[in-house]
Amino acid sequence: MMALARRLQQQGIIPMIPSKRNRRELREYDQEVYKARHLIANFFAKLKQYWALVTRYDKLAENFLGAIYLAVTIIGLN
User: Fold this and answer.
1) pTM of structure
2) 36-59 per-position pLDDT tens digit
3) Angle at CA 61, nearest 5°, toward 57 and 66?
4) What is the Cα–Cα distance from 45 to 43, expressed in whole angstroms?
């Protein structure tokens, strides 16, 4: 097991990233949690594409939130 994964488990954290298929010792993980984590990571990657739009309106919290809503709506429509 990797040193990082071992350290996380000592802290009571369960790693949810699968190990590579060619490793001798495969790490167990919850596939449903990993799928949800992957969807969230992909969503934030798509949201970063609209960062230029968001940074133009970040002076006021209301405008920033409005730009985020706009970007999320565009992502949802695609």
Assistant:
1) 0.56
2) 989 999 988 888 887 776 566 667
3) 60
4) 5
Longest Cα separation, the chain: 52
Residues in the chain: 78
User: How far apart, in whole angstroms, are the C-alpha atoms of residue 48 and residue 22?
Assistant: 32
Site of tokens 């369960």: 14
DSSP 28: P
Which tokens sit at 47? Answer: 């949201």
How far apart CA 60 and CA 20 sit, in angstroms, is 44
Name the token pair of 71: 């970007």
Residue closest to 71 by CA, chosen among 45, 47, 43, 55: 47
CA 7: distance to chain centroid? 21
Strand, helix or coil for residue 18: coil
- pLDDT reported for residue 53: 66
